[in-house]
């Protein structure tokens, strides 16, 4: 067993980056290393990108092996842990628990009965009880957060701004229900609300509805709106967008994307802006408050 | 031109039943005729069932021909009009307007910019300004409404009741946004919220998520909850369920269906109960108030 690290070591010691899918884990790892801190990636099997992970110090991890994680992270000298990347809640019977996980299983089972916030904050507690410190990716690398104003050249029209306001108000109303915080609004009409299917799944649905002639809004109308839940643990579950979100919004025939500034993670901002410009979509960071206006500079 | 009918004739004269898709229009027409009142069906092209419509006095109608409708309904002696059956909002450019509709088009265009309630109440005003009286199907045939308690043999468990309460609270929160009033909740987690895709579309999505292993709730868990919007014009847009809703809920792996009693239309209650019993699903009518408990007797 590795001894507990001295408290002072926490801020500068190696960082354990637990990696789900997509490119965000690598954006975060790069940002950490750019600051001169070592990052050790724990790639979740079935989710983390096996090609890209090779360029980093890494271990392959599976969800049921918490005991193994504790040993390995301690051996690497990691006390700080960051969770990043996409990961859809697995059916609990797919976990193959190691001994420590098995002992925690009754507690984990209870956590699984509820929304994402409930599950995530419970998991955060378990990590902290085992001597780890959970850190939000945005605390480590604030440059990954969406700023206020637009990325790229396009800006929302006044009609788009009305759709954005309606979407923010809706997400404000659904926030206490601990569901995916995304919606599509077109010409003041709510077209889709995100829950377990995720943002990409919701955009694919809007694309299908449009193809089937079931939307009256013309192509090039409508906005994807994403907002952080009001009381969520931001260390674990901030909304994020990437270039594929812009492509999905384009296929869905939307005018653009609005996300809450300062609480939305950008996977690859340069490519987001490039794809948005190529497809003539706007991507705008807006204030979180329901009553606030949309600033576009 | 046919002269306006005498006011006293309204309650007993023939009823114009404007028919969308599904079996509900025929349930309503049968209920009207059982009371000894004549029903004239106006079958909307592309929506009304061409096989079943033959058994009734009917005209084929298309959405853009309001002038034709006024003339034909008056010639049939109809002053009361009921709208019933499924009809997804058409893209406005698919309307081929007749002369009267053309004159109303600027107003209709404005109505199309907004939610369903906005569109429907505007259309109701247009009919009333032309001397028709819009009546809710539930006013004409109250027996088509879901009562409190269960249809069929199955009853919700205490876990199901907790899911129902959560769904009702969520629909209460989204009610001001004028969207489809349906949701799926399983093990206290909101799995899906309905907007433009409709209830059948939402159930198909839950089925797909389950097949893809993206739901952690076991098969046989979870409830479809439907509720009338709080301030909607109930003459035009009450939620409804039919046997296909029960089949969709079964395919989605749910335990049952809960709808608000007294404000949900049942298409073919006997078949709903028969399918529910065959598939071991519950179908329960619950009180509308968010704080009210679920009664199953």
Chain pair with largest interface? A-B, 39 and 39 residues
The ordered string of helix (H) and strand (E) elements of chain A is EHEHEHEHHEHEHEEHEEHEEHE
Shape of chain A: globular
Q: Look at the helices and sheets of chain A and give the structural class.
A: alpha/beta
Give structural attributes:
homodimer, 297 residues, alpha/beta, five-stranded parallel β-sheet, 10 helices, disordered N terminus
Provide a compact summary of the structure.
Chain A contains 10 helices and 13 strands. Chain A is of the alpha/beta class and 297 residues long.
Could you describe the 3D structure shown?
Two copies of one chain form a homodimer. Chain A has helices at residues 24-34, 50-53, 66-75, 99-112, 116-129, 137-140, 158-174, 198-211, 243-251, 269-279, and strands at residues 15-19, 39-44, 58-61, 80-84, 133-134, 149-151, 182-186, 189-193, 223-226, 240-241, 256-260, 265-266, 282-286. Chain A is α/β, with parallel strands linked by helices and 297 residues long. In chain A, strand 7 (182-186) and strand 8 form a beta hairpin. In chain A, helix 9 packs parallel to helix 10. The radius of gyration of chain A is 20 Å and the shape is globular. Chain A starts with 14 loop residues before the first strand and ends in an 11-residue tail after the last strand. Chain A binds chain B through residues 88-92, 94, 112-115, 166, 169-170, 173-174, 176-179, 183-184, 187-197, 201, 205, 209, 213-216, and chain B through 88-92, 94, 112-115, 166, 169-170, 173-174, 176-179, 183-184, 187-197, 201, 205, 209, 213-216.
